[in-house]
Amino acid sequence: MVQPVQIEGVAGKLLLERVCMDNVKTDGVLAGESSKEPQASQGAERQSSKKDRNLITRRRFLCLFGLAGAGAAVASHLPNMSAVAADGETGGGPRRLRRWCMVVDLRRCDGCVGLNKPPRCTEACIMSHYVPDGMEWVQVYRTEINAHSGGTYFFPLHCQQCENPPCTNVCPVGATFATPEGPILIDQQRCIGCRMCMAACPYDRRFFNWGEPNQPPQAKAMAYHPETQQPAYKGTVMKCDMCPERGRAGEVPYCVEGCPRGVIYYGDLEEDIATNGREIIKISSYLARNHAYRYKEHLGTQPRVYFIPGYGEDAGRNAYDPRDSRRKELQWPRGT
Ligand code: SF4
Ligand code: SF4
Ligand code: SF4
Q1: In-domain check, residue 331
Q2: Between these two residues, 311 and 93, which has the higher pLDDT value?
Q3: What pTM value is reported for the model?
Q4: Nearest-CA neighbor of 178 among 166, 190, 189?
Q5: CA 313, 149, 4 angle in degrees (round to 5)?
Q6: Residue nearest to atom 5 of ligand 1 (CA)
Q7: CATH code at 207?
Q8: Nearest C-alpha to atom 8 of ligand 3 is from which residue?
């Protein structure tokens, strides 16, 4: 079902008018080129320079999101989180509240089978977050388009960062909670391992540490924080945290950075702008024009992740090709 976002962010509109409106295209893409592959007739040199121009630099990301001097407001009632708020770049100046979201363009995702590699998004998250063995915080499913007509598509699934999250409602000790910026976090130092939240999540996006997590020494040496979930603790739940610390630092999440096809956009619903690291979109018009939907939205969970329907056709994938099912196995980084 089509569910465009209607955001009337004044700051976002002003920013868009000032920075980007000259380049607005009808499909909501603001800057950079379409993700489609360059024409074969173009020379390698030209492709390379175009690619360079299309990359969104950290400076440009900061500019577009107005993050220079903007910091982040987080849950002040939680000791760990107020420490984050104090780390803002403003030195005490006014702070803008972000509403982080994601847009996953399924027209470009081929599950990385075209590269003959495991999904790059999943692997980037695992490697960067020292994700314990067996967990895939972003998991790429191969799914049937239609039981009658056949055909398949690949479906990267993060925690949907629900605005009405069933997982937080059932936690008996308040260990999992929503932050004002949107991401649903888990305080593993408070989690008692009852797994009620896992049962409540309709997206199956929570994972349990049954044994001692197999992590490298650098993960075990980290100072614990719910935004990094490091180090991991036995008998606690973990999941995708949407990398809010990356957004605040002017970076996109590791899974966005790792995707070779620009499938995943990360942005701010307040500013109405998102980027996949190559191009920038005006979220509301991009969703409306491309028939966006939210997964299982009939449940009333109000996910912050939007999907553009497709089967990898923009990446040259044939939805009816059985060879596309051969997904490479992931390898988790070994611990000590
Ligand atoms: S989202 Fe990108 S990295 Fe992930 S499977 Fe699809 S094409 Fe590969
Ligand atoms: S997807 Fe599941 S774990 Fe994530 S916020 Fe929604 S209910 Fe909670
Ligand atoms: S947003 Fe961050 S935590 Fe979530 S899957 Fe991507 S890299 Fe992993």
Answers
A1: no
A2: 311
A3: 0.79
A4: 166
A5: 55
A6: 111
A7: 3.30.70.20
A8: 125
